[in-house]
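Open question from group meeting: does this chain pack into something compact, or does most of it stay loose? Before anyone orders reagents, we agreed to write out a predicted structure and look at it together. Recording both the input and the output here so the notebook holds the full record.
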Amino acid sequence: MIPNLSAFEYVQANSIEQACNLLAGLKKEGRVIAGGTDLLVRMKHRASIPEFLLSLNGIQNLDRIEESEDEVIIGALTKLHKIQHSCIVRDNFLLLSDAAGKVAHQLIRNMGTIGGNICLDARCEYYTHSHIFGLEYWPKCFKRGGEFCHIMKKGRYCYARFSADTVPALVALNARVTIVSHRSQRSIPLEEFYTGRGHPVNILQPDEILTEIRVPKLYSKWKGVYFKYSCRKAIDYPVVGVAALADMSGGVCKEIRIVAVSVASSPVRMKEVEDMLRGVRLSDHVISEAERIAIQGISPIPHHGDSPRYIRTMLGTFIKKALLQIID
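C-alpha cells returned:
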C-alpha cells in the first residue's frame, strides 16, 4: 500500500509574473506543478516532500502551439496528447509527434505536459523505494541530501538515469527553451539545459520556470525517427531511446543529429557517430560501423537490472535500425 501524500500548501498562479514572485518569496521547499504525473508519484513514495505546490494551470497561453515563418513555439503546459496529434507539429516535425506519442500511455499523455517531460527527474530505484512509508532502508543518497550514490558506491555525484521520451527528439531538432524568473528571462538550447548528473538534473533555479519551447523550421524537411525499448511496452520509461534526424540527398547523409536517452544522467549526443556519417553514403558497411562506434562511445550505468552490456547492445541496434529507416 502506498501512503497518503504529506501535508502541503497549494497555490494557483494566474500569471507568469505572479508565479515568479511567489517562488522568489518562498521560505519553504516548493515545487511547480502542472500535469503532476511524475511529481505526485514521487510524493506518494516520499521521494519528494515539498511543503508548497505552485500550480501553473491557471496561467493563460502556456498551453499553445503556434507557427511562425522560422519556428514552431510550444507552450510548456501543452499536453503530450495535443503535441502528438497537432497538425502543425506533424507537418513540421514528425519525429517530435512520434516521440510524444510514445510517452507512457494515453491517460498519462492526456495529463502530462511537454514542460514536465523536459523537467523530468532522473530515475533510480534506490531513491524511489529506499524510504517507503517514511522508513530509511539505506543511507541517504545525493538526491536526498546525503553524500552517497548507491549505484556507484565510490561516485562523487548522483548517477541516476534520465529517461524522458520527448527530449532526445527535441535535442535532435535543436530546440531552445525559454526560462523566466522575477529577475530575468533567458533562452538556451535544450542541449545545454541538463547538468549531466542525476542531481540536480537540470539548471533550473528554485525561482525559475520553463515557459516555452522553440523549434526551428530549419529541420522540418529532414527525415527523423524515434525508437524506444521498454520492459512494459504500454506504460514504461525507455530502457534505451534513440532519436535520429538526417538531411539526406540521394542516399548521402549531408547532415545528421543522433541523440540517445536513458543511457546516462542526461540526453547524449552521439557526436562521433554523427561525424563519421556526415557526407557519407549510408551503405550497409557504413551503418554497421556506426553501430560499432556508438557501442564503444558510451559507458552506461547499470540500472533497474539492465547491464551496461545490454544497454550498449540495444543502443547499437536502435541506431542501426534508425539509419536503415532513414534511407528507406
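Observations to bring back to the group:
The longest strand covers residues 240-249.
The radius of gyration is 20 Å.
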